[in-house]
Amino acid sequence: MPLPFPFTLRTATLADVPAIRALIRLSAHALSAGDYTSAQVEGALQGAFGVDTQLLKDGTYFLAQGEAHTEAPVLAGCGGWSFRRTLFGGDARADRDPERLDPRLDAAKIRAFFVHPGWARRGVGAALLERCEQAALAAGFRRFELMATLPGVRLYQARGYVPGELIHWPLPNGLTIEFIPMSKQAA
């Protein structure tokens, strides 16, 4: 197994949107190939997958920047958490709910994790998830929930998330895509 290149985490800004959008497209196609068809991924990119600028405005979306022996850092991954009701989906999804959650009653939402294929299985997703959970804990949340893609389930289960029942989410191109809701109680 190759040794991982070092990476650092930072809070994303609106200036990062084009790079995040490109990473989401690349990650979704490359890392979902064994679980979803290309047509399902394209449909998901029209709303279920995508940049949610509310996360960036809230300061709850993070980037992993990797050192890859180039002059500019590589965007190795992205992911965030939310104190709002929307569980998943980007700006293109019309039914997003920006209502604030009550950390005493509600679970923080773990959102929009995507990893560059060249950085897959090198700790990027786990580091982003840890950062999100710690930030949500600091905001008073004690539970987490997310909507996992099929390739993402392995990461979340390894980090203590419990899967719910598989759902078939309708896509704008007439297809459906499978997701698994998952949850975790803080230790």
Q: How many independent structural domains?
A: 1
How helix-rich are the residues, as a percent range? 25-40%
Q: What separation lies between the terminal Cα atoms?
A: 31 Å
CATH superfamily: Gcn5-related N-acetyltransferase (GNAT)
CATH topology: Aminopeptidase
From the spread of the alpha carbons, the general shape counts as globular
Question: Key features?
Answer:
187 residues; alpha+beta; Aminopeptidase; 8-stranded mixed beta sheet
What this model shows, in words?
There is one protein chain. The chain has helices spanning 17-31, 38-44, 53-58, 124-138, 153-158, and strands spanning 7-11, 61-66, 74-82, 108-115, 143-149, 162-163, 167-170, 176-185. The chain is of the alpha+beta class. It has a single domain (7-146), classed as Gcn5-related N-acetyltransferase (GNAT) (Aminopeptidase). Strands 1, 2, 3, 4, 5, 6, 7 and 8 form an eight-stranded mixed sheet that branches. Helix 4 links the parallel strand 4 (108-115) and strand 5. 38% of the residues are buried.
